[in-house]
Structure formats: structure tokens, C-alpha cells
Amino acid sequence: MSTQVHATISEETVREISDANDEPEWLMETRLDALSNLSELDMPPVIRTPGRDWTNLDALDFDSLVDPLNAAEEKDLVGEGDVVVTTLAEAAGDDEYADVVREHFGSVIDPQENYLTALSTALFTSGTFVYVPEGVNAEDVTIRTEMNSRSLFNYTLVVAEDSSSATILERQYTGEDTAASEDRYYSAVVEVVANENSHVQYGWLQNLDEDTYNYSLKRGSADTYATINWIEGNIGSRLTKSAVETTLDGSGAESQIVGAFFGHDEQHFDVNARVWHKNEHTTADLVTRGVLDDEARSVYEGVQDVGTEAWDTSSYQRENTLMLSDDSEADASPKLIINNHDTEASHSATVGQVDAEELLYMTSRGIPEDQATDMLVEGFFVPVFEEIEIDEFRDDLEALVEARLDE
Amino acid sequence: MSSDQDHLQTTNTEDRFAFKNEHEAALVSEQGLNEETIRLMSEDKDEPEWMLERRLRALKLFQEMPMPTDWPGQPDLSEVDIDKIVPYIRPDVEIREGTDDWENLPDEIKDTFDQLGIPDAERESLSGVGAQYESEVVYQNMRDQWEDKGVIFMNMDRAVQEHPEIVKEHFMTSCVPPSDNKFAALHGAVWSGGSFVYVPEGVEVEMPVQAYFRMNTEGMGQFEHTLIVAEEGAEVHYIEGCSAPKYSAFNLHSGGVEVFVGEDAHVQYSTVQNWSRNTYNLNTKRAIVEENGTMEWVSGSMGSKATMLYPCTILKGRGATDTHITIAFAGEGQDIDTGAKVYHNAPDTKSTIESKSISKDGGRTNYRGLVHIADGAENSSTAVECDALMFDNESTSDTMPYMEIEESKVDVAHEATVGKIGDEDIFYLQSRGLDDDDAKKMIVAGFIEPITEELPIEYAVELNRLIELEMEGSLG
């Protein structure tokens, strides 16, 4: 590994972070374990084909990017009614929730799954804990993170008890006061535990500044009849490597993964949507749309994995990329792995440019070409916008798309 | 299947492939691979120095390159131990370059090809036939009408001697260099036999030419090399058939195919592969297509224990076209990992990939494909369609396409579906008086029809027979 960050971060650093949070012993041990195993762990998987690395994470200079003791963020955690929204640090030390945190922390994502999850586990600052008690309906949980330092490590744990429902909207952006043109690193791990018959809708809007390198892994486990719906919008960052994943563990579980990205300049988005069907009667629907302008580059990997026990599976995947510039590049790999024949599965992927006929239609009606193109790009995103149930999220995303078109 | 083809069904297809014939070889190399083996082979073939040098260079590359093990979900190759392979067996045939009369062949070899039905097919519907037994081509013949027009169809070893200038230019240089992958390197070191096809400018060979490859000895490796050069405006259809009897030890087939499609030329390459279930089938096949040329790959992968085959087309000239049609059928213990690679390196190029796979009784099929559109390949389009049919829950069906798009003025579409045989379809057919087995056979025949209709009728019938055979006795 070219990055020797594990050699420069000491056990002392991790203890210092943990002590500042007043964390229980087990959590500090989990962090220290992750740190001590760093050198053994690989980077998250990226696609390599002959002569082409779709994303090169090894080239990132973590040594200079990671500065854990000076982490600075502003966090808003909002939840109304019976839902609990607090920092992980606080919850882990709280009499009522300590056991819940301990039971579920690391249960969906192994802290040592790869080098970057381990780094996040060892170094996360305060973290977020969302707990939705049985039967509770939590409409508007919002988590807002403003990044104000060279590096920031986030960790979010959501536990939805039986028959509860929650709508969670998480936003990341960079604060005004950060040093300009200094490379930054933002990393997030999100675990969602959706118990029987629960319904979790999780929106994620990333608009970090374009000096920031971003790694995020979001994974949910859906129990019997539970639903996890993800929406991810990627607008900001210099480079994003992001995976949104659901394991459909219980019978009748469902998941939808909706993604949208809009890259310009030299942005690089490597977005992955993955679902594992592990039980019978499960359903998944993966929809991603992205637009690339200037020299932006996108990488998409989608995986639908149907296990041997997943009888009566329905699984669909669609990915569409629109290229606005000749200098942009788009790579896509939608994969199907089917081990049970009682499956209905399909996937499709397309790459193309703005339709010439549609453009002609509009310009012939007097709309200037620039404006017509903008309208077609907005129209391209409509199938994704339509899947978004959270109005606030849809409005935000639409506004960001418009703002980018106006640049 | 219609009744006028019934005569083709009189021979039991399984017996036709599974039989073993005893035959004494003239030269059998030792197991394993070293410089000495290569020198021995090359000397036995009386090769020019430059070919020996290419072999030795390939051997060095082979020894340096690691086994491919890091592909997601790739077949298990741990059993493939090159040191246990007999790379070269020269059958005892009096005429070293093979014969053009079946009667000149020893009875055992002639019987083998008779049982496979090759001489019959030659009489009826082919322009030329080559037949390879172990490492050497034993029979080669071409109709006079094509020879008169300057078409060359001869075994590869002879071409090295008789057409050194063409072979030297094209043999494992720009199309499939030995450095391409470990098995291409192996192939470059130990290749033997195969076909050389040369079609001069403007000549259209109307009937297909065919080569048949047969491995008869346990533990051997077959490494035939096929080189096809179609000059401007030429047209040819080349068919390759493969089989081997089943033994307990593994066999290795690692063929190399290089196709040069000239301006406005048209080459179709069809394969029906029915290697025995102990054969590892690891091939490298590639075509380079010039302006407005067309390359068509038609592949049926029925046999082998594991197959890794991704015919590749490089669309080099403006307006070049590629078509891939592949069908894979994996039964018990089989891992058929196949697909297509297309590089769009020029504007106005077009590719169409159609893949069908069937898996049953624990077999695994995988479509693994790569489409690359280079910067500047404006107005290129590609359409990929993969359909998979699964019979039971022990089987696996994977689809792993990769798309790399560096150009914006393109039209790229990939689609895939996976499903089981529909209960409704079966019910419909049953309600019209078919029993369950026949209904399933009919659905499968319909599923693969896009492939069979691309093949000459004898091959289509053969493919259907093989699939029926696969399905017999295991439905219910």
C-alpha cells in the first residue's frame, strides 16, 4: 500500500478521540482493533479491466489527507416525537441505549471490511445514532453535517424496531471557513437495521466542495417484510467512491436504491448499488441516472445477487448516463448473479447524448439550444425525481441540478 | 425438427462423440513444458528458425505470467497443471502434411471422422474440410473451383513452410500477441496444427469451409492455431467443430484464432464446441476489422468442464461492423464462462451482441463482456442483449458486462433478463397435447433459435440434437 497512514496514526490518537467522547471500553477496543489491523486490509473493490483502472484509490495520499485530531464539524440532529436522534458517543454511554448500540454497531458492516471502513471506525468523531422505537412513525429526521476541517470521519447507526417507520435525510457540505484549495477527505459509514415490518427511507445528499475526496458505504439489513429505500444524490466532491447496499435478509423484504449524479469539471464519481436477495419473496429495484459534463468521469457498478434460498425473487436494475461533453467518460457494469431459478430479474444500462431529434424539435420552436439542452437534462432526471418521496429532498436536488446547469 | 431431417438423427449423437479409438502415435512428447520440448516439436516439424524463436519467446512469457485468478467469479483452474499435460502428439500418418483423401488415413483415424460424420458433410455442403487428430492436421481438402480463384485453405504447419511471408506478418503479432494472456503465451509456445485460410481480393467463397478438431488421448493438450486473412471485398464462412472422448484425467484445449477482415470484407466464424466434460477450454480468439468490413462470431458452447472464451473484435476502420451470437449450455459440473469483447476504435462502427445461456443440474453459465468505445469513435453504436434460462435451483446464471465509454456521440445499450422456464408457456403447450418434456424441449429450441438460424442446416440440427441430449432423462 502506498499510503502509510496506519504508521502515522498512533493508538494514542484513537484513545484521545474515544476519551473525548467518554466512550465505553468496548467501543474504544473496536476502534483500536480496526486501527491495528489497517495494514492487513485492502482498499474497497474497484473494477479493473485490461489497461484500465476504473478508480484508483491507491493513488490517494491518505497520509496528508488524514488529520483526525483537528476534526471540526457542525452538526444538526433533528428528530421530533418519540424518535431518538443523538450522537453515537452519547448513546453508547446512555443507560437506556448503550445495549442497543453495542448490539448493532458493526452488525451490518464489518468495521474491518476494508481499509477505509476501518479507518472510519478508528477515527470517527461523534457519529449519529437514530433509534425508532416499536410502532413509532418518525416523519422528519434530519442530519446535517458541515465539514470544517481537513478530514472528517462520520458514522451513522439507524435502528428501526418492529413496525416502525422513519424518513431520514442526511446532507453533507463544506463550511465557508475551510482553507481554499486544500485537499480534504470525508468518509462516512452508515448502517441501517430495519426490523420486522419496519419502513426506512434514507435520503443522502452530498454536496461537498470540489477539493474533497469522499468515501461512503451505506448498507441496510431488511428483516421480514421490512423495506429500506435509499436515495443518493452526488453533486459535489473531487472524487466520490460510494456504495449503497441492502441485504434482504427476511422473507418479503423490499428495497429500492435510487441514485442521481451530475459531474462537471474533473469530478470523478464511482457509484455502486448492490442488493443481496437472501430470503424468499424479496423485491429490489435499482434506478440510477447520471449526467456528465466537461471532463467528468463516472463509474457505475450495480449488483443483483440472488441466493439459493431466495425463492420467488423479483429484481430490477436500470442505469442511464447522459454525456454532455466529448471529454467526459462513462464506465458501467450492471451485474446479475443468480443462484435460484425462481427469479424474475432484469437489468439494463445505456449511455448516450442529448437526443438530436428532441433538441431539433425544441430549437425549431424557438428555444435557444443552450436552454433546450438544459431542459432536456432536467427532463432526463425526472424518472429519478419521481421516485423521491421526500419533498424537501427532491426540491433540494432539483435546485442543485438547476444551479449546476446555470453555471 | 422437421421430418426430412430424420436421417440425421439415426446416429446416436452421444456415441458419436464419446467413443474412443485406439491409435498408435508416431511421436509423443513428454508431459510438461520446457525449452527442450519446444525445440523437439519445432525440429520434428522442420520449422524455420524464426518460428522456433517465436515459440521460445512465448514460452518465456508463459513462465513469467501468473495464472489468472482475480476475475470475479471465474471458473476454478486449480486443476490445470501444465506439467501434467502432453503438449504434442503426432499421429502416425504416412504423409506428413496430411492427405486429401480419406482412404489414405489409417482405419482408426478414418473411423473416428466417419463416426463424426465429417466426410458426409464435406460431400454435401462444404467448400473445404480440414481434420485435426491430436496435434496434427491429418486431412485437408478444398474444392478445385476455390483453389482456382486463389483461395488457400491448408493446415497451419504447412502454411509456415509455404507462405512464410503472410504467416510471418500475421502470426501472433498485431492480433493476438503471446503477451495477451497466460494461455495465449502457452499457445504461442506449443501451437500445432490448425488452419490457414487466405481469401484474395474480391473472392466470395459461397459454401463454408470447415475444420474439425479431435482430441483422442487422455491428458493431452490441443493447441491449434487458426489464421484467416480476408482481403478487400472477400467473403468467407469458417466453421470449427470440436470434440473429445471422456477420460478421468483432464485435457486442455487452448486454441488461438486470428482473423484479419479487410476493407469491405465479410468473415463469419462459427464454432460448435462439444469437448468432453474433463476438458478445460481456454481460448483466445480475435479479429481486426478494416473500413466497412464485417465480422460475425457464432459460438455454441456445449461441452467442456470449464470454458473461458470471449471472442474479441477490434473495429479498426470507419464503418466496421461486428456481430456476436453466443449460446452456452451448462449441465452438471460444467462452468461455461463466455462472452464477447468489442473495441470501437473508429467512427461509425457498430456492434451487436446477443447472448443466450441455459443452465441446469448445477451447471453455471456466465456472460462476461466488455464493450469499449474509444475517444473519437463518433456515431458508434452498440447493443448488448443477454438472456438466461434456468432449469433448477442448483444451477447458477451470472451476467457481468463492462462498458467503457470515452466518446459522447454514441448510442450504448445493454439489456439482460434471467428467468425460469415459464409455467404458463408449458401449460399452453401441454394444453395443445404436448407432454412436459416435449414442451420444455420446444421452449429451449425456441429460445436458441436466433443462434441456430445463423448456422448451416447440418450444424443447426446437430446443435439441437446436442441440446435435446442434454435435456433427456433429467426433466420432470
From TrEMBL, chain A:
GO terms for biological process: iron-sulfur cluster assembly. This is SufBD protein. Residues 148-380 form the SUF system FeS cluster assembly SufBD core domain. Belongs to the iron-sulfur cluster assembly SufBD family. It comes from the Archaea. Transmembrane segments: none annotated. The lineage of its organism: Archaea, Methanobacteriati, Methanobacteriota, Stenosarchaea group, Halobacteria. InterPro entries: Fe-S_cluster_assembly_SufBD (IPR055346), SUF_FeS_clus_asmbl_SufBD_core (IPR000825), SUF_FeS_clus_asmbl_SufBD_sf (IPR037284), SUF_FeS_clus_asmbl_SufD (IPR011542), SufBD_N (IPR045595). Residues 81-139 form the SUF system FeS cluster assembly SufBD N-terminal domain. NCBIfam families: sufD.
Automatic annotation (TrEMBL), chain B:
Signal peptide: none annotated. It comes from the Archaea. InterPro entries: Fe-S_cluster_assembly_SufBD, SUF_FeS_clus_asmbl_SufB, SUF_FeS_clus_asmbl_SufBD_core, SUF_FeS_clus_asmbl_SufBD_sf, SufBD_N. Residues 213-447 form the SUF system FeS cluster assembly SufBD core domain. One of its GO terms (biological process) is iron-sulfur cluster assembly. Residues 139-210 form the SUF system FeS cluster assembly SufBD N-terminal domain. Coiled coil: none annotated. Pfam families: SUFBD_core, SufBD_N. Belongs to the iron-sulfur cluster assembly SufBD family. This is FeS assembly protein SufB. It comes from Halovivax asiaticus JCM 14624.
